[in-house]
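User: Quick one: structure for sequence A, then sequence B.

Assistant: Sequence A:
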Amino acid sequence: MSSDTSAIEEINEPKTKESVDELVPEATLMEVEEPVDEPNYSWSQYSSIPMRKKGKAAYKKMKEEYGDSYTQHSSSRKDLRQAFISRSYKALRSVVPIPPARKNENENEDYADVFLAHARLYVFANIFLIYDLKRLALENLHETLKNFELYFCRTGDIISLIRYVYGNTEIPDDGKEEPLRALLAEYISIEIDNLTKDLAFRDLMIKDETLDVTQRQSLLGDYMAAVMKRV
């Protein structure tokens, strides 16, 4: 872990200085170190700029300790976005005549219902085992997200989607990733700066009562994985 995020430094025990005249037990003098300020732990430490600086320092330290066996796995937002855009599915859109997703043009356009429509269709298809429809819904949501400009005042649209997805999907029994959650987790890693600034997103992972403890823990785990991609 980087020294910037290390635990609070311990204050040394007071040191005493004996009197010059050992025969006269004068009052001892105490030398106490200046108090150490506690680190300011806050969500802002996860913003991309300071986090990447800390990540580089941590990487250098780990590289010195473990040598060439240690490999850095961080990625820039640009790289992550390109990987997200390049996600490929079985080309159902090329079979089913569906127009491309429309890009939002300003911050006043509410896309919450658009996102939820795709997610609800996915959940419906998953329940009734309609695999082609499930894949198509996933592909359409991906197409919409990759063309969506996330203005800060529109983070609520994404939060509504995240709340619905984690509240209505489950991790498969075989331990494999849940496709819709995996798509959102990848999107979160791209837009982590904007999302983390929104108090509603923080509350969603910690105390939102619409999700149970297991669902919140799963979301928090995916969030931390997203953070590590940007470190």
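Sequence B:
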Amino acid sequence: MPSVLVLGLSPKHSKSLQFMPEDRLAQMLQASEKALEEAGYDAKCVYLERDDDVEYAKATIKEKDWDTIVIGAGIRTIPELTLVWETLLNAAHLALPNKLLCFNSNPADVLDAVRRVC
């Protein structure tokens, strides 16, 4: 069973409202987690509520030899989160130099992103 780490913004993060209302994002994240599970992936999801949650995310990256890591669109596309994005990308690259990373455009296509690489 391939292992997947999903890193994204929590519906509680102040910047997540740029994408959609909190309740809608929470529903989409839950559906995304269920889709990964039903597809047979061993998935762990870490959603940042604050920018300084990046340290917990970095520790989780080092937790095991993930088959892939998804870094969500919310982290990647909001200019104010560039440092968070850069920190997570570099941590993933250092921890898993021979693994492919994947990227989604919204919570609904996380499974598609994962399937592209494993």
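The mean pLDDT is 96. Strands lie at 3-9, 42-48, 68-71, 101-103.

User: Thanks, that's what I needed.
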